[in-house]
Design goal:
2 copies of one chain form a homodimer. Helix content of chain A is 32%, strand content 18%. Chain A has 365 residues and is of the alpha/beta class. Chain A has 2 domains: 159 residues, Rossmann fold; 183 residues, Rossmann fold. In chain A, strands 3-2-1-4-5-6-18 form a 7-stranded mixed sheet. In chain A, strands 11-10-9-12-13-15-14 form a 7-stranded mixed sheet. In chain A, helix 6 packs parallel to helix 7 and helix 6 packs antiparallel against helix 11. In chain A, 50% of the residues are buried. At the A-B interface, helix 6 and helix 11 of A face helix 6 and helix 11 of B. Chains A, B: The transhydrogenation between NADH and NADP is coupled to respiration and ATP hydrolysis and functions as a proton pump across the membrane. Chains A, B: Belongs to the AlaDH/PNT family. Chains A, B: It is an enzyme of class 7 (translocase). Chains A, B: It catalyses: NAD(+) + NADPH + H(+)(in) = NADH + NADP(+) + H(+)(out).
């Protein structure tokens, strides 16, 4: 059973789907691992480390011509072209509804395990790349804010007087939001947080932040622990009630995403205008239209004296750890997909396990 | 008594010598304050705030044609040209030994208070800009390291496994070093620190870091709490003994400066080669030749897989708080320089106070 790990080719992508540590485990389990030359270099994993772990270095064609392809980012047509017909693909598809690449994959007889379809069960948690990568995004968002904010995050008491701690507001208390709260608290900021799901209140408090309570007349708790979309009326109430809290913030980290929908507007232009000159907004929803309408995806812009960070790939800024977590997620997944056979690992029936069944995208679906 | 605050014109400088808060106090004490249009904008202080504080906006010529000029960075010939003859200058001179600008200043009859000559006494501490700005540099250096390091600084326990905390080594436990230690500790890193002055050991421990003990055969404690230069023999012993500790580090922040000397080499090329791929060195001595010979002043370079940050003006990256501290330092200094008179503040005899006497650079000296 041959596993391939290609170099990710999306602009700005620095991660790699597996690391030398994990490759060593896979080889130990009887897999043959082929890695494209230079695939891990940007993440801090040199080719020599993969070789030492038992992988074989190869050109691009060799890394794609495998039984099981491990990818981070969505493949393009050229990637599909290079795949071995009838193989297995594990990676993010990054698609909602109509998708040009999926028919190409299926036409080639590929069986696709789409990582964004991972069920949100406790058994699946150790394989959930959305969760592991969001965690990293939440950490890195606060580091980015600290690097772009013209003041200290912590309170500073010096002989030249003291500086008050920054007031940080985190919108959305999912995995990314909770890690953003934790990181901003570590740095000594005064942290406030808001989420439409009332059950997040206790988690916010447990991290030392103050929950912002708004009365919307309805709950935003949706299926599977995700947020659902609010009614228009509730959205308007939410914006108005949030505005005063947000205008007082010096750093805002927004993480409000609804799967396969445009991100909700939580930070209006009016709020940006009211914020203090030099404040920073890190909009983790930039790729989905942004939680602030002034955010520009993949850019850092200044509007009304406020810096808006619209970077869309924060995990790629922490590529060593992001790849390590991603690789371990995939290792955990692979371990439930295969059983030990005499001639090496044998693929189990993917439709028989609720995790792989949920992720599997087949021609019929 | 007219005070002038010009726009700083050095490339990359974003600070301003006074802030609206401090201007308000100066105006309250009877000073007339003139500020160059846009002087505070890059630091997050709009012109309107200075006007509201009682300052008068002016062009460059007006901000220089004053009794008392408040500057951040060393003036150039054009600045001296614009100064009112016989005026007072407060600012950094940034010069050692021979200096072309000082004769120009003195030829114009300026009395110069050089902020780097501030005595290191407890009474002077609230006026010490070297200290307040070093504090900021130490904080910002660690934020920069976190933003350039491809992994987490804190330990992370996730369902995809855990990431160990980064191993951070801080060289030099002066004001910058101690703040770097504190910030790295806040972020959850495992912090080690080294200083030639044995008396810093307790401060290092009190911040939760581990002191690195080396036997050099002599102490590096110099006059006034600064470090002195070691003998060549002791330097060689220091490098060798440090090398093993440094090679294990993932982030190094170096702060070893000796006034008016080339910075000592503490991180050799051999150490950089031994460090893990993706590690980061922030060299706060970059402007004085660097504590690492591979550092390039004002640049961020990669050598042997390690990122070397050679930025030379970290306070300018936190311009709002840096300017606020600087402005308060200057306010505290001005308060000992003047006494209340019937027609406004009256300059006292600068040679009569040990602080101003130490700072004063006069034609005779």
């Amino acid at each position: 059973m041959k596993i391939g790990i290609p170099l990710e080719t999306r602009p700005g992508e620095t991660r790699v789907a597996s690391t030398p540590d994990v490759v060593k485990k896979l080889v130990g389990q009887g897999f043959e691992v082929v890695i494209e030359t230079g695939a891990g270099v940007r993440a801090g994993y040199p080719d020599a480390d993969y070789e030492a772990a038992g992988a074989r270095l190869s050109d691009r064609a060799g890394a794609y011509d495998v039984d099981l392809l491990l990818k981070v980012r969505r493949p393009d047509e050229a990637d599909v072209e290079a795949m071995r017909a009838g193989g297995l693909y594990i990676g993010l598809l990054e698609s909602c509804g109509e998708d040009a690449i999926l028919p190409s994959l299926l036409a080639k007889g590929m069986r696709v395990l789409a990582l964004e379809r991972m069920p949100r069960t406790s058994r699946a948690q150790s394989m959930d790349v959305l969760s592991s990568q969001s965690n990293i995004a939440g950490y890195r968002a606060v580091i980015e804010a600290a690097a772009r904010y013209g003041r200290f995050l912590p309170m500073m008491m010096t002989s030249a007087g003291s500086a008050k701690p920054a007031r940080v507001v985190v919108l959305g208390a999912g995995v990314a939001g909770l890690q953003a709260i934790a990181t901003a608290r570590r740095l000594g900021a005064d942290v406030y947080a808001y989420d439409v799901r009332p059950e997040t209140r206790e988690q916010i408090l447990s991290l030392g932040a103050k929950p912002i309570d708004l009365d919307l007349g309805e709950s935003g708790a949706g299926e599977g622990g995700y947020a659902k979309e609010l009614s228009d009326e509730a959205k308007a109430r939410q914006q108005a009630a949030l505005a005063d809290e947000l205008a007082k913030a010096h750093v805002i980290v927004t993480t409000a995403l609804i799967p396969c929908r445009r991100a909700p507007v939580l930070v209006t232009e009016d709020v940006v205008q009211r914020m203090r000159h030099g404040s920073v907004i890190v909009d983790l929803a930039a790729a989905s239209g942004g939680n602030c309408p002034l955010t520009v995806a993949d850019e850092i812009v200044e509007r009304h004296g406020v810096t808006l960070v619209g970077l869309t790939n924060f995990p790629a800024l922490v590529p060593a750890d992001a790849s390590a977590f991603y690789a371990r997620n995939l290792l955990n997944l692979i371990e439930i997909m295969f059983e030990r056979g005499e001639s090496g690992p044998q693929l189990k029936d993917l439709s028989a396990d609720d995790i792989t069944a949920a992720m599997l995208v087949q021609a019929a679906s």
